[in-house]
Amino acid sequence: MYSIQSLVGGLLLGRSSTSKRGVIVLPGLIDADFTGQVHILAYALQPPVAIPKGSKIAQIMALENPLPHRCRPREPNERLRLNEGFGSTGHDVFFTVELKGRPVKTMFLQRGSQQVQQEVLLDTGSDVSIFNQLYWPSNWLLQAPSNHIIGVGGMRNPSISANPIRITFDDSQVIVARPYIMPLHAKIRGLPGRDVLSQLGLVLTTDQHFF
């Protein structure tokens, strides 16, 4: 560590003695080419917590951390970590869910006397319902939400319907919700989340049997 030529990075971990005091240290990965001072992120379960100066509250476990550009030429958008803050050398990696083959359901969104039909994807694992702003009626007011949406691609700043929307499914089930609105792939009109599906009495199940 602490050298741009190093092959050894580190895994930053808390100590059990620190956790017993009610201080939780968030784990972090230190790239081999990081040359700055290592800082930690921590929080107290029940503040305030007094920690005497010089106390050991974290530890670094050395581990082999070969960098991507050691196996191939460095790409123009790749940078050395050096003394920079959060982030990591190389490309970001995001886990995705294959949406192909997910069940599709017809729903009708209604605000006042205006109604629109949407074909939406079910079983996407979304916690909240999101609709494509491309197909959202322009005269249906939106506002800034109190929360962000975090998923594939990082954190997004969506809008949320300013008014409750009446949602009717093709089997005549009716619920009321305030969905989020944001850019989605042009072929995706909406992603009903657990906030909507739970009102329909749907639950997540698996055909796997655990003993």
Q: How would you sum up the major sheet?
A: 5 strands, mixed
Please give the radius of gyration in angstroms: 24 Å
**Shape, principal axes of CA atoms:** elongated
The assigned CATH architecture of the largest domain is Beta Barrel
- For this structure, the CATH topology of the largest domain is Cathepsin D, subunit A, domain 1
In the residues, how many domains can be counted?
A: 2
Approximate helicity band: under 10%
Which secondary-structure class do the elements indicate? Answer: mainly beta
Multimeric state: single chain
State the CATH superfamily name of the largest domain. Answer: Acid Proteases
Tally of helical runs: 2
Percent strand equals 25-35%
Provide a descriptive summary of the structure in words.
A hairpin with a 2-residue loop joins β6 and β7 (114-121). The chain has helices at 16-20, 194-197; strands at residues 8-14, 23-25, 28-30, 42-44, 58-64, 104-111, 114-121, 130-132, 142-143, 149-151, 154-156, 159-161, 165-169, 174-177, 180-182, 190-191. The protein has 2 helices and 16 strands. With 211 residues, it is mostly beta strands. The model has no long low-confidence stretch (mean pLDDT 79). The protein folds into 2 domains: 1-93, Deoxyuridine triphosphatase (dUTPase) (Deoxyuridine 5'-Triphosphate Nucleotidohydrolase, Chain A); 104-200, Cathepsin D, subunit A, domain 1 (Beta Barrel), CATH 2.40.70. The longest helix is centred in the first third of the chain and has 5 residues, at 16-20. It comes from Zosterops borbonicus. Keywords: Aspartyl protease, Hydrolase, Protease. GO terms for molecular function: aspartic-type endopeptidase activity. Pfam families: dUTPase, RVP.
